[in-house]
Write a structure and sequence with these properties.
Elements: H1 5-14, H2 24-43, H3 73-79, E1 83-84, E2 87-88
Antiparallel strand pairs: 1-2
Helix pairs in contact: 1-2
Length: 95
């Protein structure tokens, strides 16, 4: 599939991208190459191929689920300028 300069400009406008005029031709070429590669990949017969989540048959090592950080609420509340009933008090912003 070939993308021309006008299509690159249209895509750039839709994506709200500012593209230099000098770069448009290279973008058109690169996008055309990408779409050609996708077309080649779509043409491959994958009948009978089982989908896989990973190309290697590996098992992820899992770490033990232990608490590493404890409740430090009181420590953090002590640093605040004003608190009340476990809440941070902040100045009123809207009238």
């Amino acid at each position: 599939m070939s993308i021309d300069i006008d299509e690159v400009k249209k895509i750039a406008k839709l994506a709200c991208l500012n593209v230099d005029e000098a770069d448009i031709q290279s973008y058109a070429t690169n996008l055309s190459n990408i779409l050609d590669l996708v077309a080649q990949m779509n043409a491959v017969d994958t009948t009978g191929v089982t989908p896989m989540s990973h190309p290697f048959d590996v098992v992820q090592r899992l770490r033990e689920d232990v608490v590493t950080d404890f409740n430090r609420r009181e420590d953090f509340m002590a640093l605040a300028p004003e608190t009340e009933d476990g809440l941070y008090l902040v100045p009123k912003v809207l009238e």
